[in-house]
């Protein structure tokens, strides 16, 4: 009898701990979301540099506009400035907390807006090492969480994507809890649970005394040895965009 | 001539004191030999490398071009799993579900980066202004019959699928797993990828027994290379048993059999140490080294032991005296024959195929060590072991008479025999020129290897396994969207499709056409490349944004969007046709496209096609050098310039005869056979050395005329030549059972060459000796020389 009681106690304790690690993970993700809340809207210029194994490079430049929404996922608009033959091509994305995102693309060459079936968001974004899912708004609901460890101010949380079409089994995210739970590093594990890529955030700057933004994202693919570097410049948090700036009409206007 | 005689005397004296020394210090000598062998052996490390890259030297231009192509796009090692459902229709709910399941499981293959199947094919369609890019069949188990019929229609119309992933009838399909190996650990394929794939397939077969499964691709080929190395290593045991039996039959003495066994084992142990010290990774061609060393090293011991036992049995010498005499008489011949064999094997370094460098170097080292052990450990052992032998009435008289009568037969009709021999050799030489190179890598394995039969099934039922790739540049960043480029690329694609040997073409122009059609509401009249650069670039951007993980275009387009990759799959064709086809494609580009688009064809299969030619070209110098060196050694050993020159005939003609007979047998030569000239030269030269030295001894010492000297040579050395030939034939016959054609063909032609060499040495050589001696006065007759070192 005593034995059974003991086992029960052990099991309950373990159960509590398991729950705790998941809850703790979720708690951290929510804290990070909370810390970044209230930026309303921003624009930023982005230079994307693709490097292959031999160090050959290729560049693209883009402008991104983001509108913060609280009841659903953020809306974003990306405009390509170069290469020349895709200049003006723009994408409009409505991320959703639950279900597939909506995405449209404006093609200036035919002056038409095309809706993209967005079941596939795990593929490389314009040939880079970033998948569309790596760049889209990080909504809390898109993952389940598990707290892994804490080292000083750094907290590591495992995130498992909810979407079955994701290219990953899990991501290991390192937050900096002293710096507004900003991301320091993300490790991506592919479908066979092998380390695929590492994303390092660097050159952080704080805007409006609250919002941490890294000026450099370095994504290294360990399997192909290719690398993509994103360099952000001219962050603007005072632009004060509204929903009207994120419609198909706006998409057409911006591109042409 | 005097200098040579002195040298001969000197070696004689040296051999005698060597024998005395070894017998006097038998224990220390044996111990030293053991320590040396164990010391070397302890450094031994046998690792197998199945990567097909090992067949190409670092400087091989085709390999460089292919690696450059893989760096630009993606490195594609693959496994093709071919599924044939028993109902002969892929498109049923059950079969599609099974395929979808296996496809999902395939993503778990270690190092996999991409999985292509009929179910996850990214089908593009347009509904109004929406572009849909989605799996051709997702969640197949929920599909209705009508939907499945629709999927079937789409699939069978899809140029990217038909003849690549799907056959025209829709009865057979493939799952292609692309694997990106880090290439750090030799165990990646044999230890990780292959076991995973095999398990996955056996689980699949259990769950879906209605599917027949075949596998091919570069990974299974790699595994086949690896496993055939292991198998060929296993032949060593068979050869070891043959060595024991042969030695026992020839010496009829258990102790000498034991001593021989120890000598060959020490030689192999040392060679294994050499492999470890040099960091050599074993491959199918080089993994036969233990059998080679066994075969060649045993001859050394047999020569010494047979003489020793003869001296004891026939002449009644005591053990030590017989041993000393055997050493004295055999030291030089064993040295010379070892030297020529080493030279022969070292010439493999002139070739362009690294596994043969390894085979040559390991065997040469092993032969050097075999010489050392045969002249140290062997006599020491024989001095220690309680060898007893009674003086026997020999029954060899009968056999001796047989050799003598063969000699007499030759002596009676040298002119006729020479003419007949030369006619036969001439005819076979003519036939030899009819052989053609064919290095179809699939045929490297015989039908006992599953990789071969599975690959044959795939190429007969689904698609080709020979391909050629062209990386076609546009000359500018983003230039692949230039309509001029796309039109030329499209024209190239069309031209390729028109060629009768082409089964499938995968070109970026097809993607451009397909997306253009979808951007125009799936209107068939827009199934052509876009006319406007911005349009093409923007469509491509849209399309790329729609592709899922692992199914992107990075394997077809470089990062700069300045080049695309065209992959042509070809029907079963020979190496020569393959090379010609690749050239034809290059020429078409030169004649029909701007300069930036000119490209050379590359691929592993093409590299193998060119391997034989490249090897033959580079081995030519090596063979000439081997011939010159070995002829020089012979001139020195025989102390006769004329006979050294004459020896070229019986040394070269067996190879011509061998390839002539081969033309009647297979008429196809592979890379493995290119090395046989140098290698067999080093081996067959022994016959000539022994025969000529006996002939010379009879002329110089015994004062015989040419005819008598020939009969004498037959009597004294005939049996020894036959026995060593039998040992060699046994060794190479064992190797000829290898399932790996580079080894088995090489061994088979070596069997023919060694046999021809013996016949030529018994028929043509004596005839020539008589004919050439006639003109010469009997001047040499009375010159007394001390005993020539080649005696028995």
TrEMBL record, chain A:
Q: Which UniProt keywords apply?
A: Lipoprotein
Q: Which InterPro entries match?
A: TP_0789-like (IPR033399)
According to the entry, every stretch annotated as the Uncharacterized protein TP-0789 domain falls at: 73-253
**Looking at the keywords, is Lipoprotein present?**
yes
A UniProt-annotated Pfam family: LolA_like
What protein name applies here? Answer: Outer membrane lipoprotein-sorting protein
TrEMBL record, chain B:
The main location class comes to membrane
Q: Where is the signal peptide?
A: none
UniProt keywords (A-Z) are: Cell membrane, Membrane, Transmembrane, Transmembrane helix
The record's listing under InterPro entries reads: MMPL_dom, Mycobact_MmpL, SSD
What are the residue boundaries of the SSD domain, all occurrences included? 258-384
Source domain of life:
Bacteria
The regions listed as transmembrane in this protein's record are: 233-251, 258-282, 288-309, 329-350, 362-387, 415-433, 619-638, 645-665, 671-689, 710-733, 745-771
Q: Where in the cell is it found?
A: Cell membrane
What's the protein's topology in the membrane? Multi-pass membrane protein
Q: What is this protein called?
A: MMPL family transporter
Tell me what organism the protein belongs to. Answer: Flavivirga aquimarina
